[in-house]
Amino acid sequence: MKKMLPLIALLAVVASPSLRADEAPIAIAIHGGAGTIEKSKMTPEREKAYRGKLGEALDTGYAVLEKGGASTDAVIAAIRVLESSPLFNAGRGAVYTYEGRHELDASIMDGETRQAGAVAGVRRIESPIALARMVMEKSPFVMLSGEGAETFARSQGMPLVDNALFDTEHRLKQLQKAKEKLERESREGGNHQAAVEALPTPYRMGTVGAVALDKRGNIAAGTSTGGMTAKRYGRIGDSPVIGSGTFADNNSCAVSATGHGEYFIRYTVAADICARVRYRGETLAEAAGEVINQVLLPAGGTGGVIALDPAGNIAMPFNTRGMYRASRSSVQPAEIAIFKEE
Ligand code: ASP
What we know:
alpha+beta; eight-stranded mixed β-sheet; globular; binds aspartic acid; Peptidase_T2; coiled coil; Ntn_hydrolases_N; Isoaspartyl peptidase/L-asparaginase family protein
């Protein structure tokens, strides 16, 4: 969203009693992954299902903010809706590792305190974002991984679930196809890891995230994912890495990313966007757009971000064909979009 309110949004504020330009602004944006999303390959039913789930997550998070809840609570509430849907690559519906399991990553950051929590490679946690929050609030650490993270979860009274809970037919088919492709590459003498990284975007698409601004002026960001199909050796992407996949600071902005994690880590995408806002005085839209299109794309990194600042401005740039995304604020009605031209 631009810094200046377009006339149409102003008219909407005047016309709708639910849009309140007079009070402290509240805002939320969510994503459900970026990549090659072709309208021609999407059935109307599938498109409806995606839009419906994005709308549900957006409304769930927005309701928390409307009631005066904290931005961290809104972020968690929205992400939990997406984690429990098999449509997205987070929680149920997560992609499979090379060995045929699910390893989940998530993180959350509170822009008021700069407290953060993250979990990486967990297998038995129903809501990785809820555990990330527990790490932030109940441990002296920022990031916990694997079995240690699960032991911590149990110590906090969080039940462990069977890894099969995250199984879905369509993700299993993707793993089988990916393995065929990788085995072909290996027979031809190719580099296995390079081949995993070269898999097309549908093999990882569907990471979820949220950013929110609450009535007290605090912002927060969170991200949750199953990572990349056929990942091996405990590979961890950008989603649980603070500063890469997730970042929030009341002095600049809140960002949740989705895309080719290795690039997002090396280019510290989320922190770079907020640093440009803070130190260069760029608008949120300029900073986010530049990092995604001028820095990441020329380097070969595909994906996008949702970003929000303490004034309630929202930016959702991506350099792929599409990104599942939605936003709503006290001055902007709900917008849900999937494809580039919307
Ligand atoms: N960023 C995620 C990862 O690399 C995947 C995605 O967002 O598409 O694990």
